[in-house]
Design brief:
- The N and C termini lie far apart (83 Å).
- The mean pLDDT is 83.
- By secondary structure, this protein is an alpha+beta fold.
- Helices cover 48% and strands 13% of the residues.
- Helix 1 crosses helix 3, helix 2 packs across helix 3 and helix 3 crosses helix 5.
Length: 176
């Protein structure tokens, strides 16, 4: 365990500037969390990798930076970051859990064609943004998942359709 802690400590000083470390430490403290090297490294790596990341992807990003943390540590840190509101589980339905840093509450659109996960701003901007008609219930979170085809897939299929239409018109012309 000391070896892991030693590596994590080394990685913090090696990969985080004093300014970046101070910024992340301040965010952790404001969220009511103790500042630890694994929390600093995981939050930084999640932010640097951007988007919606699985735990396996996060572990890969950490390892490419030379940071070797036990999987259980990563899960424990992520659990504390989610509970503190610094990280969000991107609910995209069944399958692997995706995580992202949370600056503003939002929802997700999942493309059925390419699998892209796109952030969709929440009209309210905080949770819970929807209240069910369920007397006596206490809601602390509501996530909306839109599904369909993303703008890129729609545009690609339209362009393909236009090309097919031009091709069909061109092939019907006679050169007699």
């Amino acid at each position: 365990m000391d070896r892991v802690k030693g590596r994590a400590r080394l990685a913090v000083t090696e990969f985080l500037s004093p300014e970046r470390r101070a910024e992340l430490a301040s965010r952790l403290r404001r969220a009511g969390l103790r500042v630890t090297n694994p929390r600093l490294l995981i939050l930084d790596t999640l932010e640097r990798s951007g988007g919606h990341r699985s735990v396996d992807e996060l572990l890969h990003h950490l390892e490419t930076r030379g940071i070797h943390l036990p999987r259980a540590t990563v899960y424990n840190v992520l659990h504390s970051l989610v509970a503190a509101g610094l990280v969000m589980v991107a609910d995209v339905g069944p399958g692997r859990m995706l995580l992202e840093t949370l600056r503003q509450w939002h929802h997700h659109f999942v493309c059925r064609e390419c699998g892209a996960v796109i952030d969709v701003p929440c009209v309210v901007g905080s949770k819970p943004c929807l209240e069910p008609d369920l007397p006596g219930a206490e809601v602390d979170e509501a996530q909306v998942i839109w599904r369909g085809r993303c703008p890129r897939c729609v545009a690609a299929s339209r362009a393909e359709g236009d090309a097919d239409a031009r091709s069909a018109v061109g092939s019907s012309w006679s050169t007699d």
